[in-house]
Amino acid sequence: MVLGLLALISGLVVINANAIFRGFEERPLPEILRRVVRDARFHAAKNREPVFLDFDVETSEFHISNRENNVLQAIPSGYPVDDTNLEIIFYRILPERGTSSLRNFTVNRKTTTHLIFHPDRSSTPFLVELNYDEESSVHRFDPFSDTEIEFSSL
Fold first, then answer.
1. End-to-end CA distance of the chain
2. 64 in any annotated domain
3. Is 17 domain-assigned?
4. Structural domain of residue 100, as residue ranges?
5. Does 80 map to a domain?
6. Could you report the per-residue pLDDT of 87-128, keeping only the tens digit for each?
7. Distance between CA 51 and CA 70 in Å, rounded?
8. Smaller CB count within 10 Å for the chain: N or C?
């Protein structure tokens, strides 16, 4: 009877330990986005060709792919496929006219389905809007590094 109780208790501990370790693997969506941008720049430099970053709603994954549309890396968002609370929108930042806009900086942006990262580790300037779990945030990255230069909660 004692051995049976020990086996039951150890089984419960193992099950709970697995849940705890899975919790360590879960990351907040903004952190996953920063990782995805870093990985896209890495793939472009490593393969010496432009790579494309998009979000696949059907699989709830970020996809980094090459010109032939071969997926080089798929990174899960951490949200279930059927979760309607998740929306990820990519925007290209359009160039400003003249230099007068430096005083009154406003971002002109255009929705796009994917972002392009070049082998020289540059990209078109972009924003990513994340809408998830009743939270919204906008993330702007430096076009020449994976540094986030602006973050705002909506």
1. 58
2. yes
3. no
4. 28-153
5. yes
6. 999 999 887 655 444 444 456 888 999 999 999 988 888 999
7. 10
8. N
